[in-house]
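In the design runs reported in the main text, the only information available to the sequence generator was the tokenized backbone. The following block is the verbatim input for one such run; it is reproduced so that readers can re-run the procedure and compare outputs position by position.
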């Protein structure tokens, strides 16, 4: 197996002496008898694997976890498996770099780099897998118990890829872009087949469009953990103002709770105060928080199973909205409510967007900002309104913050909502300080309100309903949290 590049620079090499090699394997306590109970996701993962195999009944499906990605020289980013691997195996921790799942003929096998004996030099010399470097890894048997998968040694992966197919009319398909080394092996065996691989990628992405009960529960937990992070930020807003560079303080406070409550941030936190709120992906977060400004906080905790919330609240730093801020906020809130009201099974995905945009456009028209009628600006030839909200209103949400991104257009943007789908509803108005078309009191105000909703049998449920939305409730929320 390929290993992460071990430090081999002459100025740092420190060869192991024979005396050390003889000494190191001796007198270690045995590993504990048990590692972990089976993960609850194992009630769902067999069904997910059957569903993908049904779409390619004669094929060998290769779903790699992926490897480490370098951040800076010897330092990698924290490992996160490919989302399709996580969905199919239920695994999402730091054990799986270089692993791969193979599904064929109804059988799923995980090829996994397990713990080695302490007599193996890997114990002390491998910065990728060695117990002395990264902690004890599960054994093959422990991983099999935890994941309810057949687990095989990663060293056997190459042979498994090259073995004769179970069905003579089958082919190998591999998730593209997940693991270059395994993809090269597959391509060497069968030749490149981009379209076959893309079909697998699309199918795996579309399988995640409708969430199962386990996924819904994880999303509920992600929303609850995210609420903890938001409330910690609110409690610390006065400190963020006092310290200067308050956006970074906000980012840090939320990040603390994301790591404490869950696995990580689901995406880089947007902590955007004042005019920065009008920069949609403001993640530089190096500005001050000032009394009188709004703080747009778009942040989500990714729980240990890797499901993430994606929530935005726009908060008055002083605790009170100014009249102009409240006016803009109310327009966005009305648009969001219209979007939520349109979200039900059988509705088109775009109905949510169109309902929200119509309300936004009516407000823009009432403020004399549109050069044409609401109907005309909402037509394909119009679109002037987008000057103030250039993004979409919704996306699917789950293991990826922008989940199911490889799904076909007819199943996503042009698709129909179904019970079990989880999407965001996140309209906004972004009135840049430099926009001379705006009345002065609106300039520098950016508002987004983003909630995560589950489509139910008869409508939808707001998974993030514990976050106040009404401006009076937001003010009360800030006062309550800050007086705790
Ligand atoms: N936080 C990214 C988004 O709202 O899509
Ligand atoms: Mn979003
Ligand atoms: Mn967001």
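Verbatim output:
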């Amino acid at each position: 197996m390929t290993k992460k590049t071990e430090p081999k620079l002459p100025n740092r090499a420190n060869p192991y002496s024979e005396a050390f090699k003889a000494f190191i394997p001796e007198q270690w306590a045995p590993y504990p008898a048990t590692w972990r109970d089976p993960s609850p996701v194992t009630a769902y993962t067999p069904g997910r694997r059957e569903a993908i195999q049904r779409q390619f009944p004669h094929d060998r499906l290769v779903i790699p976890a992926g490897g480490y990605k370098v951040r800076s020289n010897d330092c990698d980013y924290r490992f996160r498996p490919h989302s399709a691997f996580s969905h199919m195996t239920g695994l999402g921790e730091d054990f799986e770099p270089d692993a791969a799942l193979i599904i064929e003929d109804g059988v799923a096998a995980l090829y996994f780099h397990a713990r080695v004996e302490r007599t193996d030099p890997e114990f002390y010399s491998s910065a990728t897998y060695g117990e002395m470097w990264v902690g004890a890894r599960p054994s093959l048997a422990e991983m099999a118990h935890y994941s309810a998968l057949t687990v095989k040694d990663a060293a056997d992966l190459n042979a498994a890829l090259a073995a004769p197919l179970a069905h003579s009319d089958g082919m190998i398909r591999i998730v593209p872009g997940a693991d270059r080394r395994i993809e090269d092996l597959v391509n060497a065996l069968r030749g490149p087949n981009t379209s076959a691989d893309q079909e697998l990628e699309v199918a795996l992405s579309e399988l995640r469009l409708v969430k199962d009960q386990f996924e819904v529960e994880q999303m509920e937990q992600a929303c609850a953990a995210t609420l903890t992070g938001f409330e910690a930020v609110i409690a610390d807003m006065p400190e963020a103002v006092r310290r200067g560079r308050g956006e970074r303080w906000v980012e840090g406070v939320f990040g603390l709770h994301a790591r404490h409550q869950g696995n990580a941030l689901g995406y880089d936190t947007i902590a955007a105060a004042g005019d920065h709120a009008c920069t949609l992906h403001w993640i530089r977060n190096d500005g001050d928080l000032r009394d009188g400004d709004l703080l747009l906080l778009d942040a989500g905790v990714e729980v240990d199973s890797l499901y993430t919330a994606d929530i935005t609240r726009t908060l008055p730093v002083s605790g009170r909205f100014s009249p102009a801020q409240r006016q803009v906020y109310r327009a966005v809130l009305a648009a969001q409510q219209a979007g939520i009201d349109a979200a039900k099974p059988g509705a088109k995905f775009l109905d949510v967007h169109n309902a929200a945009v119509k309300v936004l456009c009516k407000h823009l028209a009432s403020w004399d900002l549109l050069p044409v009628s609401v109907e005309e600006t909402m037509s394909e030839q119009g679109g002037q309104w987008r000057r103030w909200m250039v993004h979409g209103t919704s996306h699917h949400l789950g293991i990826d913050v922008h989940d199911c991104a490889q799904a076909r257009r007819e199943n996503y943007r042009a698709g129909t909502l179904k019970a079990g789908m989880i999407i965001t509803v996140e309209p906004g108005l972004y009135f840049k300080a430099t926009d001379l078309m705006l009345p002065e009191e609106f300039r520098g105000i950016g508002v987004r309100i983003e909630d995560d909703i589950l489509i139910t049998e008869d409508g939808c449920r707001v998974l993030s309903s514990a976050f106040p939305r009404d401006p009076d409730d937001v003010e009360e929320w800030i006062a309550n949290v800050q007086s705790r």
